[in-house]
Design goal:
With 284 residues, this protein is mainly α. The chain contains eight helices and two strands; from the N terminus they run H-H-H-H-H-H-H-E-E-H. Strands 1-2 form a two-stranded antiparallel ribbon. Helix 1 packs antiparallel against helix 8.
Length: 284
Amino acid sequence: MNNYRRAPIQETSFDIPRSRSEESVFSVQTYLEVEKSGCDACLTRIPYATLIATIMCALGVSIFCGTMYRGATLAVLMFREIFKLNIFWIEAVKMTFVIIGACMGALGLMILFVGCLATGATRHKVYRAWRHRVGGRISCAIFMAITYVLTLVWIVKFTFLVLVTFVYTVFWKMCENPRVATYQDPIDLTQFYFLLPDNTPQERMKISGEKEVKSFCIDYVEKVEIMFIFATVACVLVILSLIHYLMCLSANYAHIRDHEKFQELEDLQMLQGDHEMLSAKDRF
């Protein structure tokens, strides 16, 4: 009797081939799952361009408000001690600088928040619904309009600061005159009468004497000139940050608008994949 072993019965498996639409849906889902895992997910959610613009804006506004507040204080003291004038509206101007700093800081934080919502995987979660996408586009459009108006306002401020810095530079050059530095000639400001208040006495437009010349040149003009130079540079930095904000908001608006098309395409691919999967099951 021949001994033989029967080969084990192998099960026959039928592999259902994947269609291209199913493979594309599977690859998108796999990519999103990989993207969500690990520390790379946090890095992809950071709006780096908006963050750089926010840092620039915060730095520029801080320097501008600090230097202009100090410059306005020195200007009040100069008019009070040199020209014997009391200017009351300077206090309101100094409070305006504080309000400007607070408003610009709040605007920067809000734009940064909008940038975070429109970046990376956060955009896929937040703007999945149609209402959310419309709200995101409206918010980007509103912030773009506000930023555009603020850019024009800061350009006007920059122009004003350039003129004021030029005037104080002229005063500085007058103080560097050898005859004025040796207190031989007075500082004649009668040609700048239009820059002084209307009630300024004619005799107060000529600064003479060692004490007054030294106080005007060293204690006030030199320090105020430095403050206004820093304020002008800070104003340029703020304008650049606002232009950067406009570019970032425009990009975020486009991302949110295009995300609606990508969402519709993904839903269509999923529907096609489910339909082809059901038809494949019916065939087998």
